[in-house]
Amino acid sequence: MPRSPVPQSASPTPSGVKPTKPAGERVDVAQVLRRRIANHDLPPGSKLKEVELSLEFGVPRPRIREALSTLEERGLVERIPNKGAVVMRLDLDQVLAIYEAREALEGLCVRLAAERSPPGYWDDLCVLFGEPMLGYLKAGDFESFLAGHEKLRTRVFTAAKNAVVQGMLDSILERTQMIVRRTIILPGRAERGLEQNRAVLAALQRGDGEEAEQLRKLNLREAKECVREFHKFVI
């Protein structure tokens, strides 16, 4: 009895892997993976498999290796012999070191922003960080609360006009984004952070770079001690 022909698969695809983009559309693989790592869609310890990523993004494996190399350079993944690329897991000492770097860099950034911004540049943010941000806290709307802080950070970068400092901060901030999200729900931390950012904004509005720098550094020193105290929860 003749055998029926066995259907051949066009390309073996791991179960559950779906392309993330329409055919022909170029995707920035490194940027997509950076966002997933920052949001903990890819938590620490996650394995990044070249074959699966190649199929998901519809790009050849050399493109995936290039993206993983970029993530490794930014300290987001590590290459482990016989295991491949794995999302980095930060320990307490590494997180505290990042906060120390942030203190120096963000202090410099707000000072430059105060010195280089035109009159009226901060007016809308001073309004936002008044009743609206307090309202977000009272309502438990942490997404809007964090979005407000992100708006302030972006505006500071724009006013500072220093691409080197911005690039350094971007590289380290994405490594602690989830820690920041966990820290704001600790008792009193979000309220204290809001109070401090209002003071920073007032200094920015006055054009007082030295005061803005000292206030931002104080903010980050307190945040670092908060992380140290509650590290078992936030890391």
Automatic annotation (TrEMBL):
Biased composition (Polar residues): 1-14
Residue numbers spanned by region Disordered: 1-25
Keywords carried by this UniProt record: DNA-binding, Transcription, Transcription regulation
SUPFAM superfamilies to which the protein is assigned, alphabetical: GntR ligand-binding domain-like, Winged helix' DNA-binding domain
Family matches, as InterPro entries: GntR_C, TF_FadR/GntR_C, Tscrpt_reg_HTH_GntR, WH-like_DNA-bd_sf, WH_DNA-bd_sf
PROSITE patterns the UniProt entry points to: HTH_GNTR
Domain of life: Bacteria
Domain HTH gntR-type: from-to ranges: 23-90
Protein name: GntR family transcriptional regulator
Native species: Acidovorax bellezanensis
